[in-house]
Amino acid sequence: MKNTKYPNIVEFQVTGDYALFSDPILRIGGEKCTYQVPTYEALKGILSSVYWKPTIIWYIDAVRVMNPIQTEVKGIRPIKYHGGNDLAYYTYLKDCRYQVRAHFEWNENRPELAGDRNENKHHEIAKKMIRKGGRRDIFLGTRECQGYVEPCVFGEGAGHYDGIPELSFGLMYHGLTYADEAYSPETAGRMTANFWNPVMREGRIFFPRPEDCPLHKPLGEMEIKPFGEALDNFTGLREFGEVD
C-alpha cells in the first residue's frame, strides 16, 4: 500500500554485487563485518548521491529486502595510516537488491535558503536523477561496493522474505545527525550517533526518524557550513537547463 503522508515521496531500487553496511566507528582498522541489512545512514547516503541540496533533508521511510541475505569473506590488503599494507578479512553482503521509499523535508536549520523551498522543483529533479541513475557514483556502504539505482514501485514484485513474519537484528547503528540537521538543543552544534533495534516484517523494515531512535551518543562539537542563497538558486536553475 502506498504511503500518502508525504507528497514528495520517491521510490527506487538499488542493486549491487557486494555491500558492506556497518557502524563507521568500527571501520578505523582491522577486520570489517557487514550488518545483515542496510543502515538508515547508508540508504540516506545513496539518496544524497542521487540528489543532494542543503535546502532539504532526506528521510528514509522503509527498505524492502528483495534477495536472500548472503555473505562472502574476502582477504583484503588495506593501506596502513603510516604506510605499508596489512592483511585483513572483510565480510560483505553479496547479490544485493533493495527497494527504498523516502521523502524530504525542509532543513529548518538553514533559514538563509528559505527562498529555495520549492517543493515541486526538488521533487521533480530528484525523480529525474533517479531515472538517470544518480548524479554521483552510488556505493553500498563503502567505496569498493559499486551500486546502481533505478525507479521502482515499492512493494511490487516478489521478495525473498515476503512470507517471513518477523526477523529481529538486535541493536544496530541507525545513522548520524550532523549539526546542520539538528532536531533538539542536545544535537545542536555537534555530531550525534543514533542506534535502534530493527525488525523486518515480511521483508520490510520501517525506519524511525533520527530523533525517535531509542539511543543517542554525542560524538563531538561541529559547526554548520554556511551556504549562499544566490548560489543555491543559480544551481537549481542549471539543473533544469534554464541557464548555461
Description:
The protein is an alpha+beta fold and 244 residues long. Helix content is 14%, strand content 34%. It is built from three helices and 13 strands. It has helices at residues 40-50, 119-131, 229-239; strands spanning 10-19, 32-33, 56-65, 71-76, 88-106, 138-139, 146-151, 167-168, 172-177, 190-196, 199-200, 204-206, 215-221. The strands form three sheets. Strands 1, 2, 3, 4, 5, 6, 7 and 12 form an eight-stranded mixed beta sheet that branches. A three-stranded antiparallel beta sheet has the order 9-10-13. β6 (138-139) and β7 (146-151) form a beta hairpin. The radius of gyration is 19 Å and the shape is globular. It starts with 9 loop residues before the first strand and ends in a 5-residue tail after the last helix.
Keywords:
single chain; about 240 residues; alpha+beta; 3-stranded antiparallel β-sheet
The parts where pLDDT drops under 50 for at least 5 residues are 229-244
Largest sheet: 8 strands, mixed
Per the principal axes of the C-alpha atoms, what is the gross shape?
Answer: globular
Give Rg in angstroms. 19 Å
Strand percentage, roughly? Answer: 25-35%
End-to-end separation in angstroms reads 41 Å
Count of extended strands: 13
Number of helices: 3
Helix content: 10-25%
**Could you say which structural class the secondary elements and strand pairing correspond to?**
alpha+beta
What is the arithmetic mean of pLDDT? 87
Order of helices and strands: EEHEEEHEEEEEEEEH
